[in-house]
Amino acid sequence: MKNIIRRFKDINIAVVGDLMLDKYIIGKVERISPEAPIPVVSVHKEKFVAGGAANVAANIATLNGNAKIFGVVGKDEAATTLSNCIENLGIDARGICSLPERKTIQKIRIIGQSQQLLRVDYEDGSYIGSHAEKQIIMQLSACENLQIIIVSDYAKGTITSELMQLLKKFATEKNIKIIVDPKPKHKEFYQGVSLITPNQKEAQELSGIILEKDEDFLEAGAKLTEEFHSDIIITAGDKGMYVFPIDAPRDFTHIPTVAREVYDVSGAGDTVIATLSLALASGANLAEAAKLANIAAGIKV
To answer: At CA 263, angle to CA 257 and CA 266, rounded to 5?
Structure first.
């Protein structure tokens, strides 16, 4: 495993997906508002973090890999802040398209006494047009020595049917793997990619099978592997991971979780797909890559 991790620094990964800016407003709660029965947060800190697909790229950079990010933002203050966050992480951001007609997706979380009290979302979920799709592919085509393309789909408009067709065509020509963090509403987009990594809820929606016992996961994994013609890894929180290789889906591997105490599950899926991609590109097999990703997710949560 150590030899695999040492190779991360030589790996180039393109992340295509919905870019977001996460803003945290952090303070103390010492009283209830006289205007309504709600807590009053006395703010003492604000911080901004790259979110969505940008968080996947941030995980790659943190793990010493080379990340290139592709997606869309608006022409607004949030886009400038997000660009600064991305550049500070050493991520190649030349694939970001600025669209004046869109708002940069922004999620604002208000934290009091270490508890999230409220989230406010600014987003435009409409699909990007052909001009933006072609810009993304043009920027992607200029990249050299890519080993993997990650599609980080939050169903916020960046991942379209046409963009996925263009990505699959490009990946086939360049012999590059595509790994997808999916959304069930885009189920028809993903057929024929290399690997799909749904969480338990997403796997239930994609397969139509309620997942409770190992037998349920086996049935769903085998069904999804056959349907998508892809390797499948189902991430199942405290149940760990279920790994289904395309060549033997019923010979699945169950990897128990390593997390002992869960602090915050947000972003764990981004950590998983970043680690999986780096490990696979570094020569790990599917089970080995999943074990490393499971360890990384345990640290994250």
So the answer is: 80
Instruction: Tell me if 192 sits within 8 A of 163, measured CB to CB.
Output: no
- Tell me the H-state helices in the chain: 2-6, 53-62, 77-88, 130-141, 161-174, 200-207, 214-228, 268-281, 286-300
Q: What are phi and psi of 258, to 5 degrees?
A: -100, -10
| Locus of tokens 């990384």 | 296
Environment class of 125 (CB within 10 Å of its CB; exposed 0-12, middle 13-18, buried 19+): exposed
* Residues 172, 134, 48, 111, Cα dihedral to 10°: -80
- Report CA Rg, the chain: 19
Residue 143 DSSP code: -
Q: Could you give the CA distance from residue 287 to residue 285 in angstroms, rounded to a whole number?
A: 6
- What is the spatial distance between Cα 70 and Cα 204, in angstroms, rounded to a whole number? 29
Residues 72-115 pLDDT 10s = 999 999 999 999 999 999 999 999 999 999 999 999 999 998 89
Do residues 231 and 248 make contact, with C-beta atoms less than 8 angstroms apart? no
Number of helical H runs and strand E runs in the chain = 9, 13
Active-site residue list: 270
Single pTM value for the model: 0.93
